[in-house]
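Annex B. Sample input.
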Amino acid sequence: MELNTLKPAPGSKHVRKRVARGIGSGTGKTGGRGHKGQRARSGGFHKVGFEGGQMPLQRRLPKRGFRSPTREDIAEVLLSDLERVKTEKIDLAVLKEAGVVPGSAKGAKVIVSGKLTRKVTLTGVAVSKGARAAIEAAGGSTDAPIPQPKPKREPKVVPVSQPQAESQTAKGEARPEKRASDTKAAIESKDERGGKEKGEGKGKREARETRPGPDAKKGGKA
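Annex B, continued. Sample output.
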């Protein structure tokens, strides 16, 4: 075998299909698009999975369960896995070297499964409540913080300040007096207007009575 005689395996390479290049190509004229319609036009494309307006398959099928995208970030470590690790001081790097957790893990948590009979010291590794008790019973320790219950929120009560309350009560008491004084002044002004109008009407009547008649203007004939 020489370099100039090398060939690919039979059937591994195929001739490129030349679409719409005459009837000899097998896909001439319409180029495999068929006759008319949205898919036959240039640019006639809808979103993937579109079925003409009816409910598409990906929405007809039921959904169930949930798969977290960060499920592999925190690896679970058994108590029996800690028993297999030879070193006494254990952290995430030691667990990766021992093959207990995958290399892509960003953290680890020890759970209750198996038995731990020797003393270990955990650093930077989370532990469950039961695993903490098992580690401490074997004489070991961990630097994982003990979870504290969250305090309950109390409803906020906004107290009303005393000066504002007193001012509001004072305003409420002063308003009736002010209204009474306003009504009294309005009545007095109305009486004064009525007296003036009466006096003006009396003066006009007296002027009409004293006005000379037409005979007095002509001087009268004897």
